[in-house]
Design goal:
This protein has 274 residues and is mainly α. The protein has a single domain, classed as Growth Hormone, Chain: A (Up-down Bundle). It has eight helices and four strands, in the order E-E-H-H-H-H-H-E-E-H-H-H. Helix 2 runs antiparallel to helix 3, helix 3 runs parallel beside helix 5 and helix 4 packs antiparallel against helix 5. It is globular, with a radius of gyration of 24 Å.
């Protein structure tokens, strides 16, 4: 079976001596094989499945780092910038300058992570769209080194993670959130769960109104993955203290970056962002 496709082309033609342009319609008939159509659909479905799998892995990482960091810091958020913004403002109203400045630094570092990862994606790893995990792993490694240095030794971690190491964790989470980009905008939020829940609710409404389960299932998987990561981070945070949690997060990020790199290697190279 073959499918005929009619394509209308507009071709400009200048009339000699008149200086007036006229337009002629040129009809081109192309023949497309059903095999090609099926192949295109298969590639699209495979790409979508791969994105769901990758986003789930990265959401687990984000939930893990966020929960474990919260336990072993002074209650700082590294994935929840809404909360940090509120703490920054409320800190000024309550006279708690330490709270205000700390939250402001984390917001600034998260934003810096987004900017740096976006620049790197445009200029350095355009063929590896999920290369942001490399920057995430690097930033978490820096946080580990800083925690060791601040503890006064090179072999013992601090029992509580200070603001400086935590700021690099926030940077790492900002970078991680640039992993999925379409047309220059984040297409899949990884750590800001409020957006995921909104999309989940809208998908459920579309399903109720006659759509399919695919309207919301991907967002449900993403939310469940983040929650699972938070549970894992809470368990690890209880079992190990301070910088050991950072080390576990850095190792998890490194393993994730290897996984995403291998997945990217099996997909078509992408053009740089425009």
């Amino acid at each position: 079976m073959r499918i005929r496709r009619r394509v209308i082309l507009r071709k400009s033609k200048r009339v000699l001596g008149s200086g007036v342009g006229s337009t002629k319609d040129v009809v081109v008939t192309t023949v497309v094989s059903t095999k090609d159509v099926i192949a295109d659909l298969t590639v699209g479905e495979h790409k979508e499945t791969t994105e769901v799998r990758l986003s789930s892995v990265l959401a687990v990482l984000a939930g893990f780092v966020g929960a474990a960091s919260f336990i072993h810091s002074a209650g700082y958020f590294v994935t929840f910038m809404t909360g940090n913004t509120e703490r920054m403002v409320l800190g000024w109203f309550t006279g708690d300058a330490v709270l205000a400045y700390g939250a402001m630094i984390l917001v600034a570092m998260f934003l810096a992570g987004v900017v740096v990862a976006s620049l790197a994606r445009r200029h350095l790893w355009s063929n590896h769209p999920h290369g942001a995990t490399n920057l995430t792993a690097l930033a978490l490694t820096v946080a580990v080194v800083l925690d060791l240095r601040l503890s006064g030794t090179d072999t013992t971690f601090s029992p509580t993670i200070g603001l400086l190491p935590i700021s690099f964790v926030a940077f790492a989470m900002g970078a991680l959130n640039t992993s999925f980009v379409k047309k220059g905008e984040v297409s899949i939020p990884l750590s800001y769960v409020t957006g995921t829940l909104v999309k989940l609710g809208q998908g459920i409404e579309r399903h109720i109104s006659g759509g399919t389960i695919k309207e919301w299932s991907d967002y449900g998987i993403l939310y469940a993955s983040f929650t699972a990561g938070a549970v894992l981070g809470g368990i690890v945070g209880i079992l190990v203290g301070g910088g050991w949690m950072l080390l576990a997060a850095a190792l998890a990020a490194a393993a994730t970056s290897i996984y995403t790199y291998r997945r990217d290697a099996k997909t078509e190279p992408l053009a740089p962002l425009k």
